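Students often ask why we bother encoding 3D structure as a string. The short answer is that it lets us treat folding as translation between two languages. Here is a chain of 162 residues written in the first language.
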Amino acid sequence: MNSTVKTVMFWVFILICLMLLWSVVQRGTNMGKDAEIPYSDLFDKAQAGLVQDASIEGNELHGHLKATPKEQFHTTIPANYEELEKALRADKVALTIKTPQNNILLPILFNVGPFILLGAIWFFMLRQMQSGATRLYRRQEPGAAAFNAAEKGHLQGCGRRG
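And here it is in the second language, the structure alphabet:
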């Protein structure tokens, strides 16, 4: 493999690592901002008119409360949430209902990705060490000559003992 291909592969690898790191950081910062509230408390707050907006995706509901600093919240809702939806619509809450995304590739990538990256780094480093030793041996540089002489002496010494 020539050096240009190795360089391109290295920078693509670095770019993928940065994108994975960015997504992990984004996911971590978004998780800490909203408080989890029980479904019954959410239903009471919806009836009291304290909910500003809500977004339902699958069985997860995320939204904001009508507080001075708008508080984010999330809760897990049951399959039949018609009563909650009626309470939110009665208070004219901005309600968004999204279909859940069944993307299995991303969770697999996030769970297996670090192991693949470590394996790729390990393989890359082994290849670099192997190609460096091969170049050193073939060129017969001053360090290589001393290495070869020591190796030959060791091998000849082993031959005499046997």
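Translate back mentally: The two ends are 41 Å apart (CA to CA). Keep this in mind for the problem set.
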